[in-house]
Amino acid sequence: MNDDEQYMSQALQLASNARILSPPNPAVGCVIVKDHQVIGAGFTQPPGGNHAEIEALNDAVAKGFDVRGATVYVTLEPCSHFGRTPPCCDALIRAGVARVVAAVQDPNPQVAGQGLARLAAAGIEVECGVLADAAREMNLGFFSRMQCGKPWVRMKVAASLDGKTALADGQSQWITSQVARDDGHAWRARAGAILTGIGTVNADDPQMTVRALGVARQPQRIVIDSKLEIRPQARVLAGGGSWVVAAQPNPEKEALLRDIGCEVIFLPDSTGKVDLPALMQELGRRQINELHVEAGCKLNGSLIRAGCVDELLLYLAPCLIGDGMPMFALGALESLQHKRLLRFHEIQQIGEDMRILARFN
């Protein structure tokens, strides 16, 4: 690993600290280096707060360092537009840095190379592409939303080794260990929204919040409920602010939900159910980068069949259940040629369970 890669690796590690803070902004890390010494470091703060570059500049100044002539390593191209904060490229130009190394170009059409171009026009040496794959991985959801108009969709399932999520009568607490469940909450925390279905709400009455670790931001809660059957007392609606996605009008229930602070979104398809691909586009418009799905086998199967899922987050416990609820209701295939292909991205033991991250091809 050369020096550029070493310092960019440090910046990526900083960026990981921003994953649960930054949505809908990307998680970015930055280190400032002068005379082979890191003199400033920072990562993206919550929306409206400083971007990584400003945090790193402030850190260097607070420590008494002069950043003029320094090299800046940042995991995403410095922004060039006014959003909630001023352009970071302008701050770097004013600071007098000599070189900026970006891991990857910003996919936001409002930036898309303009930040690097402005730095170069100001006489700053610019390089882009150092550890680019790792930088894209850090912000899969942001890239998906900017390039495809929809969030990166991760479906989490906890199951036995024979692929069952519950007994035949619905008992599911608990198949996996506490360690695995806490790990699942960490994945919830980085998401912009958590999605479930009315079947899960009726069966388990889940809260769909992050509870295993302290967070300043709770993901948006979303329930797919085609017929608006949800009870206003459901825990997923507690505190207001939840979105209920429906397909069939029910004025009385709509009024009840709005009275408790929930929003009803109508996205019907031709069959009277929720149009799932249209929902993904709507969530993209609402600035959701990562969507975390925790639902039952029916909704899981529907989302997969509709091509709405990017990856599976599977927790497999070392036990066998036998007859029970499957992970996905996909129906029977006429031929193995029609099987849905995935690739293993990561396999890791979490406590006594196995965590598999598998991505659709």
**String of helices and strands:** HEEHEHEHEHHEEHEHEEHEHEHEEEE
Spatial order of strands in the largest sheet: 11-10-9-8-12-6-13-16-15
Q: What is the subunit arrangement here?
A: single chain
Total DSSP helices: 11
Biggest sheet overview? 9 strands, mixed
Average pLDDT = 93
Helix content range of the residues, please?
Answer: 25-40%
DSSP strand content: 15-25%
Secondary structure class reads alpha/beta
Number of strands: 16
How far do the termini sit from each other?
Answer: 30 Å
Looking at the structure, what is the overall shape?
globular
Unreliable parts: none
Radius of gyration: 23 Å
Description:
It contains eleven helices and 16 strands. With 361 residues, the chain is of the alpha/beta class. Strands 11-10-9-8-12-6-13-16-15 form a nine-stranded mixed sheet. A five-stranded mixed sheet has the order 2-1-3-4-5, sandwiched between helices. Helix 3 runs parallel beside helix 4.
